[in-house]
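Suppose you are handed only two things: the residues of a chain and a line of SMILES describing zinc ion. What would the bound structure be? This form records exactly that question and the answer produced for it, so the two can be stored side by side and reused later without any lookup.

QUESTION INPUTS
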Amino acid sequence: MVIEFKKVVEHSMFSAKTNLKEEVPPIEFRTDPLTGDMGIVLGDRWRQLKKPDLSQLIAKSLERECPFCPEAIDRITPQFPAEFLPEGRIKVGEAVVFPNARPYMSHSAVAVLSRQHFVDLPQFTEDMLVNGFLASQIYLREVQKYDPEAKYCLVNCNYMPYAGSSQIHPHFQVLAGHFPLRYHKELLEASQRYYAKNGVNYWLDFIAKERELNERYIGTVGDTLWFTSFVPRSWQFDVLTVFQGKESFTALSQRDIEDLCQGLKKVFGYMSDQNFYSFNLCLYSGILGKDYFWTQVRLIQRGTYPPLDVSDCSSVRLLFDTMVILKRPEVVCQELKAYFG
Ligand SMILES: [Zn+2]
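ANSWER OUTPUT
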């Protein structure tokens, strides 16, 4: 096992009016052992957030008709062509999947999760999430039959405008393409390189190493294992779920998806107690028959910071391609463990 969670600590200096030298916090640089993602831990500068009053935002979102609400969805949203799906749309419980009118991969769909326009984090039910993922899976299985070369699959969720969503109404983006997007490509290729070099699946070693260290391992639900990320992609919160031994999202059982959603409910409980109100989630699928990568889900918190509604994305993140970490994932892990029992 050759996984190393690399940390380098450096010190900056300044001249202060008072003798603060000892109090200057060290700067900790972290490098992800697989992807090389770099992050800077800026001391422990996290803040307890206040949940904003979302009522105005929700009211504003209803000034124009919401295309995902039950009275509009059948009338406004497009349907799949009959040669792809004779029924036009996929329905599982309240979840509905239809083509994305503004596609950004060769197969792009939207999965609306529920009839309810605004779903607050604690209001997400396991059923809502399970139905959304099951409907997404049905769509991607149809894509595999129709266009087998479109094997790079993602399920993405931008929850609330703070996370880049143009709709309040909760939904997933379900995507498949003939080549992977940049970060997905990095995950797949780095995992493949590790397999070629070490003759073993990186994620098998990763799970063993994280469990041994017991610093970021939160817990297990069925065959899903939950961790806080060593190099978080968000200032305060980044959780990774790995489907142990599962290559492709399209091959997951209903039980696997229920395990994921049970875990997500626990994570949402924590997030709600932390006054988090917005997130990005991405499910990165591996490829059937390629045992160097296991399907996984990553979830990060999004939102602005007091007192000036500061954006959580600055030059460091967007132009240096380096993560800023205000809350140590090891601390978040300890807090989350209580929610996993
Ligand atoms: Zn709506």
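WHAT STANDS OUT: The helical segments are 55-61, 70-76, 126-146, 182-198, 202-213, 254-273, 315-318, 329-340. The pocket of zinc ion is lined by residues 66, 68-69, 117, 169 (CB under 6 Å).
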